[in-house]
Fold this protein.
Amino acid sequence: MMITSRLEDFIEEDLGYNDISCTLVPDNPQKAVIFAKEKCVLAGTDIAKEILDYFGIQYEQHFNDGDFLGAGDIIYDLDGDAVSILRAERLTLNFLGHLSGIATLTRKCVDIIPKHSRTKIAATRKTTPGLRKYEKLAVIAGGGDPHRFNLSDSIIIKDNHRNIMGLKSAILEAQKRTSFTQKIEVEVESVDDALIAAKMNVDIIMLDNMSPEEIIDTISALQAEGLRERVIIEISGGISQDNLKDFVDIDADIISMGSLIHKSHWIDISLEIKK
């Protein structure tokens, strides 16, 4: 659910101070449809409904988040005043188009993973400022995992932490300060650091920007030490739909992809007044 004041900020941004465009028309009751112009996985309907409710537009919804749509499929039948429909149009379509694009790309990536595999596709914190909640919900609609939402959800020790205080010191400090409800994840770029992190009982090891061969070698080293099953293995860094197949047969638990969001394209979704 979106806070009303935030929704009003979005509306104010779009309408401005002197909306002549929408008020040109007689404010009579109208019927309209919102429909997909291309195949996609739908996302963003909760936000769309809040926008329509705000403008007092009645609607009948035919599909839900996560549903597959064909070109021409009608998402909403609308019934409302002409000015309200025109004012709700662009904001509603922007959210539906952007979030459905993320859900569609996520589903394509999820479908590349073999059915028998335990590997999950996850998002990252590479999101549009202010829209993270909605973009991560779109990842969920596409069948992916949202990963952590913010820095308080779990602790990730990254390369800059290591550069500042060293790997072992960073892990010890995290273990000292972490709540029992939080996991500790360590980003590593070498076999040696992966072994150190696993032996120090971290929960998750992220193999960052490694080639498939380097990942296999690292996991093999963990197995040889009897450490593989004690940690969740996440692989990340430069993975997209184009090269995902290179990583799917590796024994990893999570493949996290910032590209689910920053390489998705908007889905063409339109609103038309019924004549």
Summary: The chain has two domains: 4-110+264-273, 116-262. The longest helix spans residues 82-112.
